[in-house]
Automatic annotation (TrEMBL):
Belongs to the NR2C2AP family. This is Nuclear receptor 2C2-associated protein. Keywords: Nucleus. Pfam families: F5_F8_type_C_2 (PF22633). GO terms for cellular component: nucleus. InterPro entries: Galactose-bd-like_sf. The keyword Transmembrane does not apply. It comes from the Eukaryota. It comes from Chloroceryle aenea. It is found in: Nucleus.
């Protein structure tokens, strides 16, 4: 099967926080809108996260992410589960603190309905994370 984007309009997305609670300017939807001008900007605090509840079961194989340099995470922990189950760790990823799209994250192919990405060890002193693009690729089952 060809690899495709798994995030769609029916994917339920949650984030740990939004800068100044200003969802209009810094909300989660900006990670998926394809614009280079918009982003999700977390508020300060350790251990920011994003969860994705897919409308149907998927097999995740790749993660693409574009941080704002200086507001990235040195460690991303992926957890996933099937509907009704507890989250289990899939893998740890170690992004670079750069502005460019990072597309080299191959994920151990995992069948799941929910994915949680936890951003530990922020490069920002206050723990903020800024993401311009988040892509989860794989196949729909």
């Amino acid at each position: 099967m060809p690899v495709e984007s798994l995030v769609c309009a029916d994917t339920a997305t949650r984030v740990s926080s939004v800068l100044n609670r200003d969802g209009k300017q810094f909300g989660k939807r900006h990670m998926f809108d394809g614009s280079e001008e918009t982003c999700w900007n977390s508020d300060q605090g350790t251990c920011q996260w994003v969860t994705l509840d897919f409308p149907r079961t998927v097999k995740v194989s790749q993660l693409h992410i574009q941080f704002q340099g200086g507001f990235s995470s040195r460690l991303c922990t992926l957890q996933g589960c099937r509907a009704g189950e507890e989250l289990v760790k899939i893998s740890d990823l170690y992004p670079e603190d750069i502005n460019a799209m990072q597309i080299s994250f191959q994920v151990e192919e995992t069948v799941l309905d929910k994915l949680k990405i936890t951003f530990g060890n922020s490069t920002d002193f206050f723990g903020r994370i800024v993401i311009y693009h988040l892509g989860v690729l794989g196949e729909r089952l």
